[in-house]
Specification:
- By secondary structure, this protein is an alpha/beta fold.
- The chain contains six helices and 16 strands.
- The protein has a seven-stranded antiparallel β-sheet. Strands 11-10-9-8-12-13-16 form a seven-stranded mixed β-sheet, sandwiched between helices.
- β1 and β2 form a beta hairpin.
- The longest helix is centred in the C-terminal third of the chain and has 13 residues.
- The relative contact order is 0.14.
- The site of flavin-adenine dinucleotide has 20 residues, from β4, β6 and α2.
Length: 257
């Protein structure tokens, strides 16, 4: 087990959009072993909130011992609201890195496709993935975030549900409108988006690696709270999103009908 708990210091904080915050955490050696697609668990200071909150690693500065996280406040009185109130110099208990992360080689043309809070983990991947790539980002509206960060690493195509920026619709509408093609998909976002990407990958004979989001308790593979059904050659079995994932090959994922 390589995951460690550290009292991480917030060394930089900014507001990216209305309820979305970016924080850089000083985490020491954790940053040296972190990989794109992995996540950390943050613990609340409010002891009535016992379970940690899983948050994807958005960027990694291994030399500086820092990781970047992007957090959306999910409502009043929530753990994510507590995190959003912390400032530079404050500490936060952080366990990680957790999960498997994305597997990549860079010798295929890659489509990095993120929707909403599925966008942040693709930034670390965009940074590290060599070779050709196109980045497709799906937002609800014109309140975009991280777009300029992605533009450093490849062409960026945007979709928004209300049409206020980019193609009106979802990420697949943007892919079709711009006639984007590739060999492999790296995706992260809401379940319906992942289901559509899995179908698109199958129809176009592409490989797809998709990151699943599931409610978590222990985060380290012990409690089985995050188990999901997966398809194997032997039939349907169960895997833990926190330990065996969160990234799975699309052929493994069983989407609800
Ligand atoms: C692998 C993974 C990566 C994630 N990455 C990000 C990210 O980069 N940025 C971000 O803002 N959010 C991310 N989330 C979602 C985030 O974990 C939840 O929004 C957050 O846990 C909700 O906590 P809260 O304190 O806001 O809400 P509360 O209502 O206080 O949470 C109550 C409980 O439900 C759990 N919970 C609620 N929603 C979720 C959820 N969607 N997934 C898992 N547990 C949940 C919490 O851990 C907590 O125990 C990720 C989730 C997973 C599983
Ligand atoms: S959250 Fe406990 S096994 Fe995944």
């Amino acid at each position: 087990m390589t995951a460690k708990r550290v009292a991480a210091v917030i060394c930089q904080k900014s507001q990216l959009a209305g309820d979305i915050f970016s924080i850089w955490l000083q985490v020491g050696a954790m940053a040296e072993i972190a990989k794109p697609g992995q996540f950390v668990i943050l613990y609340c200071k409010d002891k009535t909130k016992k379970l940690g909150r899983p948050i994807s690693i958005c960027e990694i500065d291994a030399a500086g011992g820092k990781i970047r996280l992007v957090i959306r406040v999910s409502g009043k009185g929530t753990g994510t609201e507590e995190f959003s109130r912390l400032g530079e110099g404050d500490t936060i208990l952080c366990m990680g890195p957790l999960g498997n992360g994305y597997t990549y080689t860079g010798d295929q043309k890659a489509l990095l496709i993120g929707g909403g809070l599925g966008i942040p983990p693709l930034l670390a991947l965009a940074e590290q993935l060599p070779g050709k790539k196109v980045i497709v980002l799906g937002y609800r509206d014109g309140n975009t975030f991280l777009t300029e960060d992605f533009e450093k690493y490849g062409p960026v195509v945007i979709a928004s549900e209300d049409g206020s920026i980019g193609t009106k619709g979802n990420v697949l509408d943007a892919i079709n409108a711009h006639e984007i093609s590739g060999d492999v998909i790296y995706g992260c976002g809401p379940k319906p988006m992942l289901r559509a990407l899995s179908q698109f990958a199958g129809e176009n004979h592409m490989e797809a690696w998709l990151s699943l989001e599931e409610r978590m308790a222990c985060g380290i593979g012990i409690c089985l709270g995050c188990a999901v059904a997966v398809r194997t050659e032997e039939g349907i079995t169960y895997k833990r999103v926190c330990h065996d994932g969160p990234v799975f090959n699309s052929k493994e994922i069983v989407f609800d009908e």
